[in-house]
Structures are given as structure tokens and as C-alpha cells.
Amino acid sequence: xxxxxxxxxxxxxxxxxxxxxxxxxxxxxxxxxxxxxxxxxxxxxxxxxxxxxxxxxxxxxxxxxxxxxxxxxxxxxxxxxxxxxxxxxxxxxxxxxxxxxxxxxxxxxxxxxxxxxxxxxxxxxxxxxxxxxxxxxxxxxxxxxxxxxxxxxxxxxxxxxxxxxxxxxxxxxxxxxxxxxxxxxxxxxxxxxxxxxxxxxxxxxxxxxxxxxxxxxxxxxxxxxxxxxxxxxxxxxxxxxxxxxxxxxxxxxxxxxxxxxxxxxxxxxxxxxxxxxxxxxxxxxxxxxxxxxxxxxxxxxxxxxxxxxxxxxxxxxxxxxxxxxxxxxxxxxxxxxxxxxxxxxxxx
Length: 348
Known about the structure:
Helices cover 23% and strands 25% of the residues. The chain is an alpha+beta fold.
């Protein structure tokens, strides 16, 4: 599992270079036709073993993470910034960040509560980053507008099962896809796509799908687990009514999100594959967000697509949490699918 190295690499949307370097090193010797496309996604092919006319299965995982970009400077040396991707401003005050190409240490600050008339609302426009500069020239001499800002977070093994780190959406998918390529062989052709700019519009996957021309596709993701906290629970009641997903319950199979409705034939077949291999899984039915499958499934003349996700608490924050059992069960499900997938799955 390459998750630690991938999680700690900085790859805010549009500037995924560090993550791409980790991926390229990891898949070297495990795939053919490795290339970097015009947008920066990495595509590769692991040929199958099952004769001619093998199914061509695209598996996508996005390399980019949410973050920020420098907008300008205040006279006192504080940095104004904007978001890159979806971020809840309420979590930001007090967080440490790495600013610009030099990865300068900084902290996100908010107007002190006793000076803020609108105390119940945190707005991104009211936040600033302090890098220790005393004036505008001091700040602008160290970082320029347009440079990226990333969360400052380390990967931690919290316990035997739990892992904590940033960018599990979607470095967990990237780690799984590396594991898939390092495994095998498979009877089908595996068309791998480590994509860019998913967090700002599923852009890299659209280009990668046109390059790879798959018969069907899977997107590997880190998805939201809302099993904790439960503000309505009694002190001894740990049940959350209808959480999106739960840690420890296995990979999540998406029925629908804001970017697509999963091909029902693939969803039925994935559920059957999990059950026949004694792999626990859960069904994600809550709408919201989107994945690379949202752009893949409408590329060219259409690509039947499905999403397989590892549940993660607190995604789109500097400290997400996942369960290693869910990771391992997700890998088992993907590999079982590749070993048993035929075009008959798509029969109507």
C-alpha cells in the first residue's frame, strides 16, 4: 500500500506533479504504454491474458486534492486566498498550511471573535494566512499570486486498523490502482488512468477516456463516511441514522450521485461478485458530489461505468480517517471483478 507517500505528496488541482512522480515510480515495470497526456493525467495499459478481443476495462483514480491559491496581500503582510475545489470554510481557522512553491509554513486566521460582528458565520473572504511577514512587501517577496496552498498534514497510523492523513480523496484510489497494476495478471486489459483536475470539474478523466477508449469503466474513490459524529445520539448510543457510509463495512458501491447514475447491470454484477467472494460491501444511495465516472460514462458514444469507494471520515479536510480493512476489501473486490468480468455482464 502506497498510501502514506501519496497522502503526504502535495497535488492541488492543476499542479499534481509531485503525486504524478510517485505514481510513475510505482507503476514502472508493471504496465505498458505509460504516458502523460496533455492535461497531465497518467495513462497506462496492463494487457490481459485471455486471447483476442479482450474486454478493455478503464480504472480511474484522481491524483489532485482540494487546496487554495494565493490571491493577493494585505498591507500588514497577511495573504488573501481562494479555494481550489470544495472546502467548508468553517474548518479552516487555525489550520496550518504550506504556502507556495517554497512550501512556506503558514496558519489560517480569522478576525478574533470579540471583533467579529457576524460571529456565527465563517466566510472564506474573511480569512487570511499568516506566514510571519510584517508588511505587504515582506509577503509578496516570498510568494506570488497564483501559487498554490496545501494543508500541512502528516500520515499517521492511529491504531492497527485506522489511518489518518490528508487527500484520501483520492490518494486512496491512486494507491489501490497502483496495487491493481502491481498485481495480476488479469484476463482483461486494464486501462489505468491517474487523472488530474477531478476536484474542479472531472476534467482529466474526460480526456483520458477519449484516449483509452474503454468498453466499461470503474472509478476508485475515497468517499464520505458520516457514521460519526452523531449529535442526536444518547451517551451510550453509537448508531447514526442512515449514514452515507460506515467505516469497517467494506467498499461502498454508488447507486447515484450528482454526476451519474451507475449502470444498473454493473452495479448488480458488482454486488453479486462481492457476495460470491464473501467480501462485505455497502450501498451508497445519498446524492451529492461526483466522481471521474461522471465524465467517463458520457465520453464518445458512452461507457458503462460504476464507482467503488473506500469510506473515509472527514474528507476534504487535512485529517481524514479510513479503516485498512475497507481498503483491503476494496482491492479484493476490484481484483475479483477483473478476473471474472466478461462482456456478457452488459447484456440487456
